[in-house]
Amino acid sequence: MNSRLDDKDMHKKDNNLSAAEYVLGILDADERARFQQALQDDAAVRDEVVYWEDQLAEVGLKLSPVTPPDTIWQQIQMQTGIRGTADEVPKETGGAGATRAWRLWAVAASLVAVSALSLLVVTQRENTADSTVVASVTAGEATIGQAAAQDDSFNPFEEALVWSSPKLGPKLGANSNATYISPDFVGKIQDYASSIGWKVAGYNALGAMEVSAAGKPYTQLWERATLELWLLPINSYEEPISLGLLPENGARRIPIPAHVASEFYTDYNKLAVSVEPPGGSLTGEPTGDILFITTLSRGTHPNP
Amino acid sequence: MNQSEQLVEWLKASAAGDERAFKKLYQVTSPHLFALLLRILRTQESAEDALQDVYVKIWQKAKTYELKRGSPISWLMSIARYRALDLLRRRDPETSMPDDPEMVAIILSDTESAGPQVNSETMQSLSKVNRCMQCLTPDQRRSLMLAYYEGLTHQEMSDRMELPLGTVKSLVRRGLISLRDCLAEDE
Fold first, then answer.
1. Which DSSP state fits B187?
2. Cα of A91 to nearest chain B Cα, Å
3. How far apart, in whole angstroms, are the C-alpha atoms of residue A280 and residue A284?
4. Quick one: angle between helices B19-41 and A70-80, nearest 10?
5. pLDDT value at residue A237
């Protein structure tokens, strides 16, 4: 009888020790697999794990707390769909947040497109309207695949914004003989999930691009946030150039910076959108999360 | 309502989709989880990424929390630590940070202080664990610290401590037995 009790007690102590080692993460693969099976089968084993998690968590709490950067909460908001408020727009600029944002864009640029919210970003390849690359990035892992038909799925607000056509695009000249001009570059920034997006048309003759909001105002997703547009170089070691704030509604004409006008499209062919404090980044670099990156294409608008 | 009860309330509210409660939960607990992630993962970038993953998971799994899963803060810390270990085990050894022989000393000195967000209730618990840790031999304590704070495996501890693998396994087991016995006496 005593021997049976001793065996039971020993078994309990073994389970307790294995639970501690499991919580510490030091069981090897085979031991862990066996223990996980026991976890499923035996409530007492689960209690042992909870016991050690409680005890060892207290050891972890002895570390001095470190407040994480504001950008982390923003990332969590985007991934969970939690709405933001004014006080959640990053107050700090520069520092670790900026570094991270910059790093994010550099990685994203090499992957063609990035989204921290499983947003889809469509990038149109040069002169291939039906060849679309869709990239979805979640939890640091990227998958890129061909999705020729995806462009059509942008239609929830396609009709709200017509491509800059000769009849709707800007005029060159001021009198009745003025001619409508064609865009030299076009781009599309979009979020399928929330039907928020912008279309971009660049005009060399004007030295400017027109950015037109489509779909819902972005503030429905990021309340009182400010979204800033950036021109990205092909070489990711070059710094991005701010193009100003994105319009919430309607269109905005944005001058192409003179010092990159001659290299526009050849050396600077991508646009990015970042979340910034009210009024835009104070550092000249993206400081918040990079929401979208899109590659510009040669303008191919229809003939009149 | 004590701190633990408050965390339970916020978890319950988060499970019901209360975003303000989740934000409060994040504001109060994230500095502790972030400190742990920084300690284990050792780089700001990895710790930030992990923290983000952890709170997304907490938001999604809040409804699975129940008191028999332990205290709310230990539940949260465990989610963070398991995530860190997962990342650590997948990390390419060639890109890992080099071993820092001073790390244990830093950990031990750091753990002497408690931040402003740890209240007296938690401090009481910490004292108990701390007291029991002092009952261990230096090597036993060091092996447990290396496992907990740095996520080292037995083999990695063996390399770090320059002791045979069997000796390290024995150190850890004996350390855990002593710790468990001490905690049981104190209850």
1. -
2. 15
3. 9
4. 120
5. 56
A172 bridge partner residues:
A179
- What are B50-60's pLDDT values in tens digits? 999 999 999 98
Residue B44 backbone zone (phi > 0: left; psi -120 to 50: alpha; other: beta): alpha
Rounded to the nearest 5°, which phi and psi values hold at A209? -130, 150
pTM exceeds 0.80: no
Above 90 in pLDDT, residue B176?
yes
- The residue of B10, B56, B107 whose CB has the most chain A CBs within 10 angstroms, and thus the best one to mutate to test that interface, is B56
Best of B49, B176, B182, B187 to mutate (most A CBs within 10 Å, chain A): B176
| Chain pair A-B, CB pairs under 8 angstroms | 148
Nearby residues of B78 by Cβ (< 8 Å), 6 or more positions away: A23, A53, A57, B70
Q: Answer yes or no: are the C-beta atoms of A165 and A145 closer than 8 Å.
A: no
Low-confidence stretches of chain A (pLDDT < 50) are 1, 86-169, 301-304
Nearest to B184 by CA among B132, B130, B123: B132
Residue A278 backbone phi and psi in degrees, to 5: -50, 130
Instruction: Dig out the tokens for A273 from the structure.
Output: 């959108």
- Name the β-bridge partners of A136: A143
Q: What is the 3-state secondary structure (H, E, C) of chain A?
A: CHHHHHHHHHHHHHHHHHHHHHHHCCCCHHHHHHHHHHHHHCHHHHHHHHHHHHHHHHHHCCCCCCCCCHHHHHHHHHHHCCCCCHHHCCCCCCHHHHHHHHHHHHHHHHHCCCCCCCCCEEEEECCEEEEEEEEEEECCEEEEEECHHHHHHHHHHHHHCCCCCCCCCCEECCCCCCEECCCCEEEEEEECCCCEEEEEEEECCCCEEEEEEEECCHHHCCCCCEEEEEEEECCCCCCCEEEEECCCCCEEEEECCHHHHCCECCCEEEEEEEEECCCCCCCCCCCCCEEEEEECEECCCCCC
| Burial category of A178 from C-beta neighbours within 10 Å (exposed 0-12, middle 13-18, buried 19 and up) | exposed
pLDDT in tens, A190-230: 776 667 788 888 888 888 888 888 777 777 666 667 888 98
Residue scoring higher pLDDT (A261 or B113): A261
- CA B111/CA A276 separation, integer angstroms: 36
Asked if residues A74 and A104 have their Cβ atoms less than 8 Å apart, the reply is: no
Q: What is the DSSP letter of B156?
A: H
Show the tokens assigned to A79: 């991934």
- Tell me which amino acid residue A130 is: D
Query: Cα(A290)–Cα(A272) distance, rounded to whole angstroms?
Result: 7
Of B38, B56, B152, the CB nearest to A79: B56
